[in-house]
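Format is chain and fold; as here:
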Amino acid sequence: MVSKENSEKIQELQILEHNLQALIAQKQAVQMELNEVLNALEEVKKTNDEVYKVISGVMLKSSQAVIVKELEEKKNLFELRISSVEKQEKIIESRIEATKKELTSSLDKKKKD
């Protein structure tokens, strides 16, 4: 029989693991966006042709410098978001480990009793 306290710890652990999975999915999505920006930035920097950008389905001619600046800003934003998510991941991972230790300790204590 699992005690109420242990049941709550198990539930907390499940919630933490669900939150961690959501963060990982969020990080992967941002990483994909970052990769797209990095690829676009690389292509824009190495071209000498005219450069265009799409805004609300309309393609507009733009200067290479403006496009590079916009892509660099997006790159920095995505890197910041990834860094923030990674910090959240570490916090949740440490809470998961602590909760697992508490649960294991409590279950081991129950076995001895």
